[in-house]
Design brief:
The complex is a heterodimer.
Chain A lengths: L1 H34 L4 H40 L6 H39 L2 H7 L4 H39 L4 H11 L2 H27 L4 H34 L3
Helix pairs in contact in A: 1-5, 1-7, 2-3, 2-5, 3-5, 3-6, 3-7, 3-8, 5-7, 7-8
Chain B lengths: L1 E10 L2 E11 L4 E5 L6 H8 L7 E6 L2 E2 L9 H4 L2 E4 L11 H5 L1 H6 L4 H14 L15 H13 L5 E5 L7 H18 L2 E6 L2 H7 L2 E6 L2 E6 L1 H6 L3 H7 L4 H16 L1
Parallel strand pairs in B: 3-8, 3-9, 6-7, 7-8
Antiparallel strand pairs in B: 1-2, 1-4, 4-5, 9-10
Helix pairs in contact in B: 5-6
Classes of the chains: A mainly alpha, B alpha/beta.
The structure holds adenosine-5'-diphosphate and magnesium ion.
Amino acid sequence: MTAFFEMAGRGVLGFVQYLGEVALLSGDSFKSLATQRLRWKETVLQLHAIGVKSLPVVLLTGAFIGMVFAAQTYFQFHKVRMDTSTGPAVSIALARELGPIITSLMVAGRVGAAMAAEIGTMRVTEQIDALRSLAVHPVDYLVAPRLIAMVISLPLLTAMSVLTGICCSWVVSIEVLGIDSAYYLHNMYKYTDANDINTGLIKVFLFSFIIVFVSCHKGMQCEGGAEGVGKATTEAVVNSSISILIANFFATMLLSKIIPP
Amino acid sequence: MIEIQQLCKSFKSVPVLQGVDLDIADSERLVIIGGSGCGKSVLLRHIAGLVKPDSGRLKIDGQDLTPLNERALNPIRRKIGVLFQGAALFDSLDVFHNVAFSLLEERTLGMPEIRQRVAEMLAAVGMSGQEGKKPAELSGGMRKRIGLARALIHRPRIMLYDEPTTGLDPQIADSINRLILKLALEFNVTTIVVTHDMVSAYMVGNRIAMLHKGKILVSGAPDQIQQCSNPIVQNFIHGVSEEAAAMKMSRRENASST
Ligand SMILES: Nc1ncnc2c1ncn2[C@@H]1O[C@H](COP(=O)(O)OP(=O)(O)O)[C@@H](O)[C@H]1O
Ligand SMILES: [Mg+2]
C-alpha cells in the first residue's frame, strides 16, 4: 500500500518537474526573443524545413480528410433529404477542428521529431557545449529561430490544408455524390463565417508553441548516446501530440465563450 | 591565472570531484592525467564554465565563476577556447562556418577579414583550403584540427584540450601534440590538457598533475612526476594495471616470508 502511494507520489512529482522544465524553457525563449537579436539565417532555414517541406504532407491529409468527411456527412444527411447542408457541415468542421488538429498532429510528427533528434544529437555529441563555450546561448541559437518559424508556418499550413480540404470535398460532393453545386456553395457561404476560420487559426497558433517547447526540451535534456536520441524523439512526438489534443479541448471550450460559435 | 579551491561535484549523489585544489599560472602548460572515468572531463568542463560545482571556488583572472548565470559567463568564455574530445564540430555547417563561428556571431569583422582570418587559422593547423568540406567528410585527426581552429580563432588566452590524442594513430597524435605545443608557445596561451596518454603528457606539459579519487594526488614538473615514489602514480605512468600491481605485491610478500 505504501509502495503504491510512493510510486504515485513519484509519478506526480516527476510530472510537475517536467512541466516546470518546459515552462522554464518557454520563459528562456520569450526572454531571448525580447532581449537578443534573432538569427535570421537560422530562422529562414527553419521556415524552409518546417513550412515548405511540410506542405505536401499537410495538403494531402487535408484533401483526404475533407473528401472522406464530405462522403460520411452526405451518407447521413441524404437520409433526411439535407444533401446541400453537406457544404457548411464540412467547411465548418474543417475550419474549426479537423484542419487545425490534423495539421498540428502531422507537423508534430514530422517537425517535432526532427527538432528533438537534431538537438538531441547535438547534445550527446557535445555540440551544445561547444555552442556554449563559444559564448552563444543554445536557446538563442536553436530554440528562438525554430519558434518564430513554427509560429509563422503552422497557421499558414493549416489555412492551406483547410482550403484544400474544402475544395476537394466540393469536387467529391458534386462529381461523385451528385449534390447540386449552386445550393451546396450557397449554403456553405451562408453558414460559414470568418470566426470559424479565426477559431481554428488561434488554436494552431497555440499549438505551435507546444510543439516547439516540448520537442526542443526533449532534445536539450537528451542523455545516453544514440539510444537516448531515439527515446527523446519518440517522447517528443507522443508528448506534443497528447498536449495538442488536451489543449485543443480546453481552447475550444474557452474560445466558445469569447467568440460564440 | 586560474584558481581552483575545494571544488566538489556529484552526479546523482555519486561523488566525482571531492575537493580539487589547483592553481594554474599564466602561460603554464598543465597536463592533468588520471584513469578513465576519474572525472578529468568534468574538471575541464568546470574550468570552461560549462558545469556548476556543488561547492568550492573557481576563479579565472580573479573573477569567481560559481555565482554567475549562463549569460553572465559569456565574457569569461570568450577568453577560453575548448577542444572537445570528439571535436564537437557543428555537423550542419561546413568547415568555414565552423571555424568562423565565433567571428560571425560577434559581428565586428567584415566578411573579407573573416575569410582571411579563417584561411590563416586553417593554415596554422595544417588544413589549408578545406573551407568547403562538411564535418562528416573529415577523419578524426582532421576534425580535431578544425575543432582547434574554431576554438583558437577568437584568440583565447586559455586553451583547454580534452583528450586531444585519444583515438588517433601515433603519428597523427604526435602531430597534434606538436600543434598544441606550437600554438601554446606562439600565441602564449595558458594550456590545460586532459589526457591518459603519457607520451603526450611529457611532450606538451611543463607541469603534470594527477587526478585520483576526486582529488589532485600529486602535481609537479614532468621529471618530478617520473621520479615520484607514490605507487599509484608509478603504476599509472608505466601502465601497470591494478591486478598486476596487486600480484607483484603479493609475490614480494611471499618472497619475504619464505
Ligand atoms: N552529466 C553527467 N551526468 C551523470 N554522470 C556524469 C556526467 N558527466 C560525468 N559523469 C560521471 O562522472 C564520472 C567522470 O566522468 P569523466 O569526467 O567524463 O571521466 P574522464 O576522466 O574519463 O573524462 C563518470 O563516472 C561519469 O559517469
Ligand atoms: Mg573524458
